[in-house]
Amino acid sequence: MSFRRPALTFLIPSLLLLAAPVQAQARNGTEKPEQTTSLQANTRRTADGRLELVALPTDGPIKLDGALDEPVWKRATPATGFVQSEPREGQPATEQTEVYIAFDNDNLYVGAFMHDSDAAHEIVNDIRKDFREDDQDDFEVILDTFRDRRNGYVFITNPAAGRVDRQIANEGREINSSWDAIWDVRTQRRADGWTAEMRIPFRTLRFVPGADRPWGINFSRRIRRRNEVTFWSPVPRSFNLMRLSLAGELAGLQVGAAGRDIRIKPYVLGNTVRDIDVTRFDQKFDAGLDMKVAVTRGLTLDATVRPDFAQVEADEQQVNLTQFAQFFPEKREAFLENSGMFYVGDAARLNRVFVPATPDDDNLLFFSRRIGIRGDRRPVPIDAGARLTGMAGGFGIGLINMQVRGDDITDGNNYTVVRLRRNVARGSDLGLLFMQRQSTDDGNNYNRVAGFDANIRFVGRLDWNSYFIGTRTPGRSEGQYSARTSLNWEGNFFHGKGGVMSLGENFNNDLGFYRRVGIKKWFLDTGIRPRPEALRRRGIRELHPHIVWDMFTNQGNHMVQKRLHSGNSIFFENGSVVELSYNPSFNLLERPLRLSPKADALPAGPYGWNEWAVLANTDQSRALSLSSRWIWGELYNGTQRTVNATVTWRPNYRVRLSSGVQRTSADLALTNGSFVTSFWTTKANYSFSPNMFVDALSQYDPSSKQLNANVRFNLIHHPLSDLFIVYNDQRFLTPDAPIAGRSIIVKFTQMMAF
């Protein structure tokens, strides 16, 4: 076991920079930017100083073609005067943007003209549904339909009419990227820029009907070749479009009840499956139904009968060098809809190079993969379920009930989740959580979880987040709890978060994800983001010296694990990133751990080691890009050389090819302690149009010589209606290999709206 002092290379500059004057921090941390452009100075404003845009009723039909040639667009006064968030906060945008809003009885229309003096160099990298907007030019709209300054709907497009839609809560503390709306967009590319026309049916949104009820609204535009992000209502660079407390207002709407919103989505499915080393194919035919009903303009009921997830993207295998279970994110559509409502905790920062899969996966209180998926990642049939989510009586409401059928390993179970949240003061909320797993075969086999949380926003950028959760499981007594508290400051120059989380000895949550119990986690995440002008002239936009330290102790305050990351990131003007870090680690093994089938097991006991890492990501908007992390130094009682790297090639916005490797070469102080663990991953994606694409994923494990392949074709033949054809192949590339396992699945869905 070895311990070393943290490298002074990182700590001295970090501490000196962290001691920068508070005045500098305050100047960069104001809630509302003081700088405005001359165009904004001449636009309408509300009584409290917010920018205001007036929506006009259409005076005839709008042909959705991106041309902006209807009379209403000529009559409307546009939103203009966009202001930079990146790279030079508060300065006017380098290119003009004009946005218009119109409406009729059924739809909201958004027209936008993105002027561009060098339109030939606009960047478009993807047109598939829910593309990644960071790597290309785009235009974004957020609608705060309840005008509560917290929750909203996001609609994004690019010059090739790709579509992204999201539902956000609490200014982005919860982001539902899987929310799918019925809406459409058309674009046109011109010599002087590009235009977009969006049509968003009112029945897609939740709101309080009535005339002259203003909505919150904001717009954003990205010019990727300059790595520039601009907003109509200014937003500091430490935040993004989801900061609805800084949004403007949309006036002039005359919105009625917008009719019913009932969607019925049946599916039919057929598949043929052959398991590994089996000669016979088994055929299966199945059918089921999903239904969505707008109970009120604020509440949505989702019901499902015999849901099937055959089309879900396959999990990617990962190299695991710990004694803990790996985290695999939820990908099933039925569980992702409105998923943010059920999250308890605070959000990950936006400016991290690698944002974790969850804000805190050391204790994710509600983890929907516990429903209908066994510990060995095999699905268990779900007979039926229902979800009620939305706003009513000033409360955010989330209810889930799912009935899971038993199999030869697990009992049948009923799962219930209840989430209530009440907004208080400005940007704050209080919440309650109740969850239960109840066996349908044994009345004394259950697990119950209940507690409360508070998210309080103080003056400026300071947030306080806390929760206390108790659990009840038959046969367990004291220590059935979990608690967490943290303070967070998010500013342009300085950011800092610190806190503690505790899991009791008998904490048990059958609907959560956590790695160990009987521990306390002490965490610190802090750093500064200076932008010296001298470096900007040399292509460096920002430096980010930072520390992210996690220390785990038992309930007696004796250390059992630590993850200390001290680094300095360099962000370049073109979006590329380089980071050098020093990462001391410690792990107390309670039982022997085998890191590789080809190496001896590490004996139980304490291990401390030190490693260095270099992260190098090139400009991800380029046709050829690299994402990589290189690690060297110690590992437990030996040494390691680790690389995680992916090369991506995008010759055009239809094709995306990537190949990556996760590889660790280790030499431990054991009789048989040398091993190499690796996974090779290849992905291929082709988009025929924004509504038709094919994805292929293959992973190869050289140690076991196992190859897994997944190919998925998706045709969106009508809004929210799909045809999926999925092929899976699993085989071993050895001379005595068993017969390969294969399956072909065809699934058809048809959404009917009333």
Q: Which helices and strands appear, and what pairs or packs with what?
A:
Layout: H1 8-18, H2 22-27, H3 38-41, E1 52-54, E2 56-57, H4 71-75, E3 83-86, E4 97-103, E5 107-115, E6 138-144, E7 152-157, E8 163-169, E9 174-176, E10 184-190, E11 193-201, E12 210-211, E13 215-223, E14 228-231, E15 248-251, E16 254-255, E17 262-274, E18 282-294, E19 299-305, H5 333-336, E20 363-364, E21 382-392, E22 395-404, E23 413-424, E24 428-439, E25 446-457, E26 462-472, E27 481-490, E28 494-503, E29 513-514, E30 519-528, H6 533-536, E31 540-554, E32 559-572, E33 577-589, E34 605-617, E35 624-635, E36 638-652, E37 655-667, E38 674-689, E39 692-701, E40 706-718, E41 721-732, E42 741-749, E43 752-753
Parallel strand pairs: 1-15, 2-4
Antiparallel strand pairs: 3-14, 4-5, 5-11, 6-7, 6-13, 7-8, 8-9, 10-11, 12-16, 13-14, 13-15, 17-18, 17-42, 17-43, 18-19, 19-21, 20-29, 21-22, 22-23, 23-24, 24-25, 25-26, 26-27, 27-28, 28-30, 30-31, 31-32, 32-33, 33-34, 34-35, 35-36, 36-37, 37-38, 38-39, 39-40, 40-41, 41-42
Q: What do you see in this structure?
A:
- By secondary structure, the chain is mainly beta.
- The chain has a domain at 31-255: Immunoglobulin-like.
- It is 5% helix and 50% strand.
- It is globular and about 80 Å long.
